[in-house]
Amino acid sequence: MSALPPHLAQPLAPYAGQVVVVGVSGGADSVALLRALVLAGARPVAVHLDHALRPESAEDARWVAELAGKLGVPYESARVDVAAVAAARGWNLEDAARRVRYDFLGRVAKRHRATAVLTAHTRRDVAETVLMQVLRGEAVLNGIPAERGRVRRLWLAVPRADLEAFLHALGQSWREDASNADPTFTRAWIRREVMPVLSARFSGAEASLARVARYAAQDDGALTVLASHLTPHTPLQKQPAAVLRRFVRRELVGAGLSFHAGHLETLAEGLGTGETVHLTLPDAREATVTDGRLHLLSQPWPEPDFPLPPGWQRRTRQDGDRIHLPGGTRKLSDVLTDLKIPRGDRNAVPLLVSGEGVQWVGLKPAVWAVGARAAAGVAPDPIHAGMGEALTLARQAAAEQEVPVGAVVLGPDGKVIGRGRNTSRADGDMTRHAELAALREAAVTLGTPYLGGCTLIVTLEPCPMCLGAALEARVGHIVYGASNPKAGALGGVTDLLGDHWGHAPSVTCGVRAAEAARLLRATFQGIRGASNS
Predict the structure, then answer these.
(1) Are 397 and 421 in contact (CB under 8 A)?
(2) Residue 344 and residue 354: Cα distance in Å, rounded?
């Protein structure tokens, strides 16, 4: 251990006695890592991949094999025609070499049951990567990650010169890869042409670029955590652009879609402004932003699960389609627009149509024409019906000059077990909210304060107090109608469910929202009119 400087030894200490796979190209960095691991008491497996890109590559493989033999460490190698792989897959040469290399390292690690795959990237590699990210216009200048899967890069803060000094002290030679001097490779061009110019003017350029990468990685980690707290009901227009970009990145990666930094920026901007954006991603996949929501894949629209009444037929949208709703007959196209159905999906939505017009629209939840549900012999939807009862309670509150909010609680069987409406003015108590009254009655009905499996339905997005009560009661599902921009705790002001409270109910928003919003507007207009007269 005396020949191993402390700043090289310390990152390797956790691997003492462990089997680790080490990628060894024969260059100074990887040779230094192999030698250092032996001195640190680890059990390295030296792995070399011949990329078949240079005439002397076979000699590099023999050299690494001899070194492994001298050190008494296991050795594995393979030869892959990387140029052929790149041509077949449509990858650039550098990307193909990286993918093939890490795939081989991973397979060897699995075979040897290694605890980690170690590579010898240094501060110089980080600085070069940051410059490449700048020139490509990438969204985050985070350099090279210290960890990815089982891969560990332990010397990212170490200058390359320190490794060469370590090898000289051991009397250890290494191989020079001729491709490192080939300016047709971007990294080689940056290393030979760009970094010397920058370092001549700024002596600490390499360290400064590595610091940029470290800070950017830390910032990205923090912002990614914030993005992970966004829920399907969170109004995205209130989020910072940096958080939205990471939210979009998470959604695209989760959907297995390819993208570039420009796609992130365009989609995030659409989410932030509420504008509609349509993009064609690489691989000809579509992404749409509409009304502050991101749509990546065509939705599986529900099909009718009931026998069709005589004279009804299934088809998709046609020009002139109309549907009779409680507020009157409307164009179907206007209904789909109001419901924020992405433009590209509207022609795929299944319809049931009779001679009297559209009777059923296959959305989630389904839209029924007036009287159509009874004609089809389909029982009322518990959520829709429950919101109807909550609206009736809200109208009663409005008639008594209270804030027009009503609430019901559905039991596990879908039946109403609790009802409530605002009575704050009558009781002289600002905590007399509809949700609390409904939760109390439901607890009495069930004989327990815990309402798991129950659904709280309220005409207006709950405030923090009422959301807290629902969480304490372990309500399984919260449904609300209109958003509450002044006091909403599910996104109107802030999304309290973005934090971890130990219980996470599912949330459905916007159910009969237009009816709830109209009642609120009419009530407050009446109150203002009375006060001005």
Answers:
(1) yes
(2) 25
